[in-house]
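Entry for the shared binder. Reason: the reviewer on the internal report wants the predicted structure included alongside the sequence.
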Amino acid sequence: MADSRLALMSAFEGKRGLVLGVANKRSIAWAIARRLADGGAQLAFTYQGERIESGVRELAASVDSPLVTECDVRSDDDVRRVFDEVGEAFGGSLDLLVHSVAFAAAEDLEGRFTDTPRDRFWMALDISAYSLVACARAAEPLMEAAGGGAIVTMTYLGGERAVPHYNVMGVAKATLDSAVQYLAWDLGQKNIRVNAVSAGPVRTLAARSIAGFPTMEAIVEERSPLHRPIDAGDVGAAAAYLLSEDAKNITATTLYVDSGYHSVGM
């Protein structure tokens, strides 16, 4: 037991990572960050907007982060600036990238998907899916300088099947899932792995905007093979595994953390 605990504590020793998507202490991105930091990783963080800045800075300070910076993933210039700052903070290299970024207008997560307007459709895909492409492109030279790297993003079953009220976010997740596979193909030759975690319902700030979220939680707990809920810590552990050397030959893969719900038909 002591040996396994020691291995966990040193799994990311000397690794440098960037985490996008922390909103508060209940965020999946923060659960992942804590796992990485506990394993010895040095982490930089981004935030979106002044409303959450102080909270993100406080969390980042608790793991001795050398960099906390704002990032608008809709702006290629802003993404380039962020990765330039990351390069400066980490001596020109990067080992780990956590992409936990998604957004759709609240009104598009409660009505009919059919009624999604064009502008908000593209906004959801831009923020939730293309941002991974933009960040992977910016991370590529830094990871190449490190001799390779690992990228993990957050997806959901709603990208594979129609989930009531998930609507345009499901279409965005389907795009994200495909992007993971194409990025893995492009970047694999540079020893950069790209994977996704598909989590069941987790109580986060973003989840509160999905109409009927408590019903989603109850159905997963009732019908999944394990009959139990999922929390952010479960997702953090899975993502940390995909980012670790234990998963060195795993890429273009989605790891489900949903008590097995994705496997059942009804």
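Summary line for the report: The radius of gyration is 18 Å.
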